[in-house]
Amino acid sequence: MTATSKLLKTLILGAPASGKGTISSRIVKKYNVAHVSSGDKLRDHIEKQTDLGKEVKKYLNEGKLVPDNVMIKFMITELNKVENKPWLLDGFPRTVGQADALWKVQPVDIVVNLVVPFDVIIDRVKDRWVHLASGRVYNIGFNTPKVEGKDDVTGEDLVQRPDDKPEAVRKRLEIYDSITRPVIEFYKQKGILKEFEGRTSDEIWPKVTAYLDPFFKK
Ligand code: AMP
């Protein structure tokens, strides 16, 4: 099926810090699709202090999943708002209940699953340091601070987020794995899951475009 005959519905799956954000924005730019990110939409509601924002705030703050009934209603409404444009769904579905509900109303055509070894992710996040007061983020080896452990602008100490410590990252990845594995299985059984392996986004990206190009070719 090509984009000329129908509007493609793509879903991207990937662990935290797997490079999902980078690959998603590249897909959005290259194929001119609408980016529907559940996390971004929820954060937007929290910022605007809507009823939904007030309801979901505690889940996001604690890193817990928003209940399925809330998520399903919200995201299906959001997807219905996308008019006459192919879309890329990011962050939803995260449970089989969500995948099932979505399939009944908007079956996706393509599922891209990013497979990055957990050790690589842990290693990458380990090199991330932040200046708490400003939110400036440094990555050792990529944008290394001028003086080790100090913020370039203020000279104040840099810290590691508790969430970014190797034990914490491992825990988050294990939780992701246990919850998402059945979602991956769900799409595997539908025959539409495609896995892309690599250690960096630059390594994965050419494989993604080689796969997606024929779908989006006019
Ligand atoms: P994300 O930016 O995708 O990591 O999402 C941030 C937070 O939003 C998550 O930690 C959850 O609290 C919530 N969230 C986003 N998408 C979903 C979803 N599909 N199901 C449940 N909670 C979600």
UniProtKB/TrEMBL annotation:
It is found in: Mitochondrion matrix. GO terms for molecular function: AMP kinase activity; ATP binding; GTP binding; nucleoside triphosphate adenylate kinase activity. Residues 127-164 are annotated as: LID. It is an enzyme of class 2 (transferase). Pfam families: ADK, ADK_lid. Coiled coil: none annotated. The keyword Phosphoprotein does not apply. GTP binds at residues 128, 137-138, 201. It catalyses: a ribonucleoside 5'-triphosphate + AMP = a ribonucleoside 5'-diphosphate + ADP. The keyword DNA repair does not apply. GO terms for biological process: ADP biosynthetic process; AMP metabolic process; GTP metabolic process; ITP metabolic process. Involved in maintaining the homeostasis of cellular nucleotides by catalyzing the interconversion of nucleoside phosphates. Has GTP:AMP phosphotransferase and ITP:AMP phosphotransferase activities. Monomer. Belongs to the adenylate kinase family. AK3 subfamily. Consists of three domains, a large central CORE domain and two small peripheral domains, NMPbind and LID, which undergo movements during catalysis. The LID domain closes over the site of phosphoryl transfer upon GTP binding. Assembling and dissambling the active center during each catalytic cycle provides an effective means to prevent GTP hydrolysis. This is GTP:AMP phosphotransferase, mitochondrial. It comes from Mythimna separata (Oriental armyworm).
